[in-house]
Specification:
This protein is α/β, with parallel strands linked by helices. About 45% of the residues lie in helices and about 20% in strands. Strand 4 and strand 5 form a beta hairpin.
């Protein structure tokens, strides 16, 4: 059992909240790590990735080379701010150009590819559950560590739900699942995970206190007409463990 410096036990919910904000980098895993220490560490790690692993490696590639560390940072911040959202190079280029960083979708595509090759972000493709085929358009991006996202956003932890969704995605990867985003007749399933012939449908949500929230979260899972396992992972609250054959898991049960 983890203990605070005063010898008090650290509850799982407190550890999860801290993980969502500060991430899981081993060097700053101490419960006493301050925001200033976290910021200095994440800044150093990002600079090492951006300069050594990306910009220096890309030099000499020609027109498609990633050579502007400032534009790279802008693209990374945009992706970090939009984890779990559908992203396209056109959308990113338009947003950055409007904000004063004029660029093109082709350039953005090269920069996004470089960030993914450095394993700072993961591209998650969409899967059409009706047509049983991968979709080439509008993938989603998730970040390798939630602490990077918090640092890039200036420690504005206002959308814990998306950070939690990102954490669920990382846990599925850790457990060896191949993960896609599910699409079915306009509805979306957060994750379609496959491993060793198994298929797992996963919804991740911050809470389901209101009945309409519960119905919204399970609606897409209920519309899937097969017998593969379906679960909803919830960060806060206590609920029935089964709703119409769909398992409801607390964050503690899912991660531990």
């Amino acid at each position: 059992m983890a203990l605070t410096s005063e010898g008090d036990p650290v509850l799982f919910d407190d550890m999860l909240t801290r993980y969502l904000e500060y991430g899981g980098m081993p060097a700053i895993a101490s419960l006493s790590t301050t925001q200033a220490q976290h910021s200095a560490y994440m800044s150093g790690v990002y600079e090492a990735i951006a300069v050594r692993d990306i910009v220096n490696r890309e030099r000499g590639k020609g027109k498609s080379a990633v050579t502007d560390p400032y534009l790279l940072r802008h693209v990374a911040v945009f992706l970090a701010d939009n984890i779990g959202n559908e992203c396209s190079s056109n959308r990113i280029a338009g947003a950055l150009t409007s904000a004063g960083s004029k660029t093109t979708n082709k350039t953005v595509s090269s920069y996004v590819d470089a960030l993914e090759e450095a394993f700072l972000f993961y591209r998650v493709t969409r899967y059409d559950l009706h047509g049983k085929a991968l979709l080439k358009t509008n993938p989603k991006e998730y970040i390798v560590d939630t602490g990077f996202r918090t640092w890039m956003a200036g420690y504005r932890v206002t959308d814990t739900g998306r950070l939690f969704e990102n954490a669920v995605y990382l846990q599925l990867l850790y457990e060896g699942w191949s993960v896609h985003v599910g699409k079915l007749y306009g509805k979306e399933v957060d994750f379609v995970a496959t491993k060793d012939g198994r298929v797992l449908y996963v919804q991740a949500t911050d809470e389901m206190f209101a009945s309409e929230t519960r119905e919204r979260e399970i609606a897409s899972l209920k519309s899937i007409r097969d017998n593969h396992e379906k679960i909803v992972v919830v960060r806060q609250g206590s609920y029935d463990t089964d709703i119409d054959g769909i398992r409801i898991l607390s964050a503690r049960d899912f991660f531990l």
